[in-house]
Design goal:
This protein has 283 residues and is of the alpha/beta class. It has 2 domains: 6-112, OB fold (Dihydrolipoamide Acetyltransferase, E2P); 117-275, Rossmann fold (3-Layer(aba) Sandwich). Helix content is 34%, strand content 29%. Helix 8 links the parallel strand 9 (237-241) and strand 10 (256-257). InterPro entries: Exonuc_VII_L, Exonuc_VII_lsu_C, OB-fold_nuc-bd_dom, Succinyl-CoA_synth-like.
């Protein structure tokens, strides 16, 4: 007997993306549990729009859920990065991107999340030990010959630092110690990079850099071991982690903080054009 292909025997309908997304959304909103529930977790990636809406994530260890509280919701002032909250809302799908999200209408504070509490504890400890002390911070050499860079070798950050340094002060040699800049294995590789820099001869200054990212992605730069590696560095350190609004423990321990990796390169080397103009002016 000839086998019958079930897909040929019964022609299956083909749905559009919007049809499938809308079906998932309607299914979620019909579910009695998901349409009226309380959820607890730690708020992160908080962003407030000009229209008064609050977008954030609720996380628990390795699980993350996108959330939104529209203008007029109750308790939006409690949604802060690192705060542990309980929210009431309903699960839905944002059809434009197909994102699962919780639409919150009430938020109550539960105190600080465990990770943020640990961060505050570590800040107090390191400050008491003198790692943040301004008087111990070293000056950056005016005319460095060898500039160390600790960052990912594949990201835009390394490319930007090369461009800025080459344009401003091509006499400086860049020495890269590659590392991971996010994830569970990032902190050990950053520490290994500092060990490599300390073993490298004649490094005048080191740039520790990473581009912008979420609180979770920037977390390796809040690790105690990374802070102590910065403190123990032989050359002075310029830290450029994330954007100007991000402040990590690495920034607080470093000898100098830059708002961006490109700005760190500008701080590390002089501008040769300005130097030439001074020479001509004083001649």
């Amino acid at each position: 007997l000839e086998k019958v292909d079930p897909y040929r025997a019964k022609i299956m309908p083909v749905y559009t993306v919007s049809q499938v997304t809308r079906y998932i959304k309607e299914s979620l909103e019909r579910d009695a549990l998901l349409a009226d529930l309380w959820v607890s977790g730690e708020a992160s990636n908080v962003a407030r729009s000009a229209a008064g809406h609050t977008y954030f994530s609720l996380k628990e260890e390795n699980t993350l859920m996108r959330c939104v509280m529209f203008k007029g919701g109750s308790g939006g002032e409690h949604i802060l990065d690192g705060s542990a909250v309980s929210l009431h809302g309903r699960m839905s799908v944002y059809e434009v991107r197909g994102d699962l999200q919780c639409i919150a209408d009430i938020v109550r504070p539960e105190g600080m999340g465990e990770r943020s509490l640990e961060l505050e504890r570590l800040k107090v400890q390191l400050e008491a030990e003198g790692l943040f002390e301004p008087s111990r911070k070293r000056s950056i050499p005016s005319f460095p010959r060898r500039v160390g860079v600790i960052t990912s070798p594949t990201g835009a950050v390394w490319h930007d630092i090369q461009n800025v340094t080459g344009r401003r002060y091509p006499l400086a040699e860049l020495v890269l110690a590659p590392c991971q800049v996010q994830g569970d294995n990032a902190a050990p590789t950053i520490i290994e990079a500092f060990d490599a820099m300390n073993a490298e001869p004649d490094i005048d200054v080191v740039i520790l850099a990473r581009g912008g990212g979420s609180a979770e992605e920037l977390w390796p730069f809040n690790e105690e071991a990374v802070a102590r590696a910065i403190y123990a560095s032989k050359p002075p350190i310029i830290s450029a982690v994330g954007h100007e609004t991000n402040t990590s423990i690495a920034d607080m321990v470093a000898d100098l903080r830059a708002p961006t990796p490109s700005a760190a390169a500008e701080m590390a080397v002089p501008d040769s054009r300005e130097l030439n103009e001074r020479i001509v002016f004083n001649a």
